[in-house]
Amino acid sequence: MHKVPPVHPGRQQLSLPPFEPRPVSPDDEQWATLGWPDDVASIASSAVMENGTLVIYYSTVYPKYTSQLAQYEQRGPGLASSFTNRYEIWLVAHSLLYCRDQEEAAAQHPVVEEANGDAAEERERQERSRMATLAALFAAREVDLAATSPCDGESQDA
Hints:
Blueprint: E1 19-24, H1 29-33, E2 45-50, E3 53-59, H2 63-75, H3 77-108, H4 110-115, H5 117-148, H6 153-157
Parallel strand pairs: 1-3
Antiparallel strand pairs: 2-3
């Protein structure tokens, strides 16, 4: 029988805000509302707090995502859906960490953040593009591993 480890006083409990990933395509009105550029390779995602929920908008035409998705769509809708779900999870995890880091930085240096608004926005866009590329790679690897495992590989292809 295992004992539950004691809770250490002073340790901060991790709390996550509610979150919701939302796909956006250039045809959607939301693309323009977000102020996303026409160059689909230059924008992967953004996150906005809406009514206490962290909404992660992500591009459905970001090249690294669409190229992987197309491969899974050819192999079956289950794999394509699994890939998109896993991709969203990676983007959400990154957005939660990134927003927490932004809040901490703003609390420590509020004037610096305001003065560098355009530069900070460009850095965030680049950071999110890099992360989306990694998210596509990680999600693809997870799907491939799940598809080849003896337990659930067959259910993914159905």
